[in-house]
Amino acid sequence: MDQQFIRNFSIIAHIDHGKSTLADRLLEVTGTLSEREKTDQFLDKMDLERERGITIKAQAVRLNYQARDGQTYVLNLIDTPGHVDFSYEVSRSLAACEGATLVVDASQGVEAQTLANVYLAIDENLEVFPVLNKIDLPSAEPDRVCEEIEEIIGLDTSDIVLASAKEGTGIEDFLEAIVKRIPPPQGDPEAPLKALIFDSWYDSYQGAVALVRVFDGRIRKGDRIRLMSTGRSHEVLKLGVFAPHAMTVDELGAGEVGFVIAGIKNVQDARVGDTITHEARQADAPLPGFKQVKPMVFSGLYPIDNGDYDLLRDAMEKLRLNDSSFSFEPENSMALGFGFRCGFLGLLHMEIVQERLEREFGVDLITTAPTVVYRVTTTKGELIEVESANKLPDVQYIEKIEEPFILASIHVPNEFVGAVLALCEEKRGVQREIRYLTANRVMIIYELPLNEIVLDFFDRLKSITRGYASLDYEPLDYRESSLVRLNILVNGDVVDALSLIVHRDKAQFRGRELVARMKEFIPRQQFEVALQAAIGNKVIARETVKALRKDVTAKCYGGDITRKRKLLEKQKEGKKRMKQVGSVELPQEAFLAILKVKEQK
Ligand SMILES: Nc1nc2c(ncn2[C@@H]2O[C@H](COP(=O)(O)OP(=O)(O)OP(=O)(O)O)[C@@H](O)[C@H]2O)c(=O)[nH]1
Questions:
Q1: Contact, 549 vs 560, CB < 8 A?
Q2: Cβ-based neighbour number of residue 352 at 10 Å
Q3: DSSP 8-state assignment for residue 69
């Protein structure tokens, strides 16, 4: 295919600004979607995504568009996830494009997440142009929003596209802008093959399916290809494009986007960011930007019903087939029984995995508080990695503990700089740089302990900046730190699954707040429940959940049988996320109460 007539682009938008609706309109106007399909939002495949309003996995759709110049263009729309946990995937999806359009709700204006991805796109040297959506709304303020786009992001809005995905206006202008403003790919079709994997998933019949963007050369069915990061070679069994349904093709040439099936057994061998080349005629260097993503956050996942253990293990194995950044290994807790210690990219990733396990595989779970990986040097000189408070050796055996630090880049408008600096300082951050990028946009760079980030940093950042801040981070190094294990005792017994590793300076406060929070979540039981926080043997805080008053329960058991049944059913429902720990029933919220602890002011 002549690269002149290809455009590879991505749509960047803040949640709810109308990306999916707009994408569906593009499919509709270009005749890519049948009548029946118009009712569904085609690009958001997973239910979970639709409910949470986020796009988790990148996907690509090919559109054929006959432009006003009479030519037919192939437009590849590459969808990107929109959360800091997945910023590596986003960066690879963007690397597969020459351009991106920034969709902004004309009644809302520029918002947080929008910015993170726009900056990623600018970093990837993409041509970025804005589109105003929802201009049909009476509350639309195109002039104000254009000003914002110019001031905050620095994009030219003089010939901005005005659209309403709802009413279907401005869609052709949008398509024309894609053709006119985004440059065509400029690969060398005769050079050795270089194709970027920007998404991959597992298919039970075909193994790993890799979505690729061919940069140089061409890939054909039957070719022997080599994955440059692993050095493994495979034969191409099937090639195709999504238009929007899978359609096989014999060849993908320079500039094209499509999928490759090559008998690759699992997604771990078709990693996002890897380069595909030919076995016989290899490219001399892979495409830049490949990273081995590693889990940053760990937490325990336990079946509420111990009999579900095998079911849970099977479900996790299935999930892992599709998610190379999710890891798990068996773990045993005194309080919770047999479960798994799981690794995630971040908190959102953790929530998504938990929800999928519950929803798709029907296992009810208790999740323990997330933690990072610490490095402990013992008095014997051994170095051990600890990703669970329970694995932390006793104080007398510890020579030193080191914790992971990250380098965080935070983009904010001027007015929030003070608030963000205060937050970073509170989180034990070390300031590196404050860079004034444009008249109103500042980039704040901080070294921060990951341990503080996984708890609630992102939510706090969003709330203090009214959603305007964007956060991106990368692992930096390990630093020695004064960390202690904080134990929680329920009626005098340490509940191992509730233990945490915290900074010594914050232990007192965290312990106090944690038991206070837990008290709110634990329902009254037949007896009094004492909650205590302790460092070593020293109790630093105590709260009591009072016993149920006898007469209240007595009343419930009237003679009416249907009433009683209803009550029992209600109890069963309520039990769903409860775990019997010793003699006390603890709800899921109690295990994650640490995420709700308010910060010291
Ligand atoms: N009035 C009006 N509403 C719109 C328009 N475009 C989208 N919407 C509505 O805005 C809401 C969000 O639209 P989506 O397309 O789901 O937004 P999105 O950006 O894809 O959201 P995420 O997938 O959650 O990131 C939906 O209720 C749409 O019906 C528009 O042009 N005008």
A1: no
A2: 24
A3: T
Residue 507 to residue 14: CA distance in whole angstroms: 37
Evaluated on CA atoms 360, 364, 368, 373, the torsion sign reads negative
- Is 352 among the annotated ligand-binding positions? no
User: How confident is the model over 296-352, as pLDDT tens digits?
Assistant: 889 999 988 888 999 999 999 988 887 888 999 999 888 888 999 999 988 888 888
Cβ atoms of 97 and 8 closer than 8 Å: yes
**What is the Å distance from ligand 1's center to 42 Cα?**
13
The answer to whether 80 and 23 have CB atoms below 8 angstroms apart is no
Contacts of 341 (CB under 8 A, 6+ apart): 298, 299, 300, 328, 329, 330, 331, 387, 388
Give the predicted TM-score (pTM) of the model. Answer: 0.77
Cα 170 to ligand 1 centre (Å): 15
Structure tokens belonging to residue 595: 């995420």
| Residue 273 φ/ψ region, left for φ over 0, alpha for ψ in the -120 to 50 degree band, beta for the rest | left
Find the helix or strand (DSSP H, E) in which 49 lies: helix 47-52
Nearest atom in ligand 1 to 164's CA: 31
Q: Which two tokens stand for residue 132?
A: 């105003």
Residues in the chain: 601
Closest by CA position to 75, among listed 88, 66, 84: 66
Q: How far apart are CA 543 and CA 339, in angstroms?
A: 28
Peptide bond into 587 cis (omega under 30): no
Which residue, by CA, sits nearest to atom 7 of ligand 1? 18
In tens, the pLDDT along 245-277 reads 788 999 999 999 999 999 998 888 899 999 999
**All domains of the chain in start order, with CATH:** 3-181 (3.40.50.300), 194-278 (2.40.30.10), 297-368 (3.30.70.870), 374-481 (3.30.70.240), 485-597 (3.30.70.2570)
Closest to 437 (Cα-Cα) out of 111, 198, 118 = 118
Structure tokens at 583: 């003699």
Residue 53 CA: which ligand 1 atom is closest?
24
User: ∠452-458-463 over CA atoms, to 5°?
Assistant: 120
User: How many helices (H) and strands (E) are present in the chain, helices listed first?
Assistant: 15, 33
The 8-class DSSP code of residue 434 comes to E
Contacts of 312 (CB under 8 A, 6+ apart): 301, 303, 339, 340, 357, 361, 363, 365
**How far, in Å, from the CA of 19 to the mean position of ligand 1?**
6
Amino acid of residue 32: T
